[in-house]
Amino acid sequence: MSSKTHASGVGNIVGYVLGLILTFAAVWIVLESSLATSMKWTIISIFAIIQAGLQLFMFMHMSEGEDRDAKVVHTVYAIFMGIIVVFGSIWVMTAGHPIG
Amino acid sequence: MESKITNYSVPTEYQSELGKMNILGFWIFIAAEIILFATLFALYGVYHDRIGDGPAGPEVFVIKDVVIQTVLLLTSSFTCGYVITSMRRGNVKGAIVWIAITLLFGLGFLVMEINEFIHYVNAGLAIQTSAFGSSLLTLLGTHGAHVTFGLFWGIILAIQLAQRGITAFTASKVHIWSIYWHFLDVVWIFVFTFVYLGGLM
Question: CB contact, 8 Å: A37 with chain B?
């Protein structure tokens, strides 16, 4: 546990550099690449999820301390509910029954 | 409030029962924040193409400024990591300096966001212009209001650290603030990806 809880600072740099790379890569993919739009969506979505994971585990210390299981399970559950709220709402409001 | 030390083998912020419970409690609050922002993303997802007589996203988004905002917030999240690193090394001065650097990047982000809002209003997109404008500015504004709150919170904690040093009481508070600050970067990653980049496709 001690190696995880005593932040060395190396993880910070790794998380930061990866975050910058993913940010600029996403911008490049959207503005410069000639991929199909659906492919662009898929790639930048994956980049966003990786970046969020970096923040949660490398910066927010989610998986440390005695309560780590409670923190991880509760947060993952909230993310799951959030995904249902977002995609459920968009689906209900746009699929087959337009509001306009 | 009494914060009795119960365990010396873990970082200072986990040493008292109160500190440990507050950190767990804050994670439960973060879950509520995830749902709050999820509802705002859902709103934007539903309404983003309802532009009425106002401008559409690609007509008003300035992607260069948004990338700068993203880098500012990402950097502030990075420097915020060193607040905890310094604190766990017992370096109170370092922790305060890193908080100050973090807040300066956060302030830079906020100034740019306010300019962005002024630009939108000048371009004919206000919160009452269209469903797109309402959902966009509610999402961005809620995030910006959180950043503003985090700025004042950070200033107050830096003062308390200077006065009391790193104790089980102050360390858990700083840890909680750092969770909050990183969480705002997580939200911004999704704003950046799905609102701005998604809007340009």
Answer: yes
Q: What is the pLDDT of residues A77-86, one digit of tens each?
A: 999 999 999 9
The count of structural domains within chain B is 1
CB contact under 8 A, A61 and B179: yes
Q: Which residues contact A62 (CB under 8 A, 6 or more apart)?
A: A56, A68, A71, A72, A75, B27
ipTM over 0.90 threshold:
no
Buried b (16+ CB within 10 A) or exposed e, A56-84: bebbbbbebbebbeebeebbeebbeebee
The residue segments making up the domain with residue B30 are: 12-48+62-200
Q: Is the dihedral of CA B156, B160, B166, B171 positive or negative?
A: negative
| Any domain includes B129 | yes
pLDDT for A99 equals: 56
By the 10 Å C-beta count (0-12 exposed, 13-18 middle, 19+ buried), B160 is classed as middle
B194 touches chain A (CB under 8 A): yes
Whose CA is closest to B168, among B18, B45, B61, B41? B18
User: In this structure, is residue B173 part of a structural domain?
Assistant: yes
